[in-house]
Design goal:
This protein is α/β, with parallel strands linked by helices. The chain is built from 5 helices and 6 strands; from the N terminus they run βαβαβαββαβα. Strands 3-2-1-5-4-6 form a 6-stranded parallel sheet.
């Protein structure tokens, strides 16, 4: 049963994607990958980071962001960015939410963030630092969504 969705916009590092895939499996989330990817899905690094979870992951691929939005019928979104003000704990995460994370080197492009200004969040950090690791960020926000939802189906 899919409760939440993690969306990676043009991920570049296979180890991050593999670690996020593991988090998706253990939380019942689906993984959505928006191309282009910065690696081959047959990468040994991707497989190693995902360990033996790959046969359990519900993964979807998209040509670009608009393809993702269209194929998911304008989904309920939360977009993460270090360039916005709202904290990730200040929004609601309804069941079925799609939590979007940007590529490691550049994040989610401003033109996409501008389309959804009321649904953009950040993880607080000390001033002067750029960002958390993508896999860590995905886990932090995903578990906030699960907490708000009462950890349904988890023990």
């Amino acid at each position: 049963m899919i409760i939440n969705n993690i969306v990676l916009f043009e991920p570049e590092i296979p180890l991050n994607t593999g670690n996020i895939a593991r988090s998706c499996v253990v939380t019942g989330a689906a993984l959505h990958l928006i191309h282009p990817l910065g690696f081959n899905t047959d990468s040994k690094h991707l497989k190693r980071a995902g360990m033996d979870y790959w046969d359990k992951i519900d993964v979807h691929h998209y040509n670009n962001f608009d393809d993702f939005v269209e194929k998911n019928n304008n989904p309920s979104l939360v977009l993460t960015s270090s360039k916005v003000e709202r904290c990730y704990t200040e929004v609601e995460y309804p069941p079925g939410v799609f939590i979007v994370f940007g590529k490691e080197s550049a994040g989610i492009p401003p033109n996409i963030l501008e389309r959804y200004p009321d649904y953009c969040v950040r993880i607080p950090m000390i001033p002067g630092e750029r960002c958390l690791n993508l896999a860590s960020s995905a886990a932090v926000v995903l578990y906030e969504a699960l907490r708000q939802q009462g950890f349904v189906g988890m023990s």
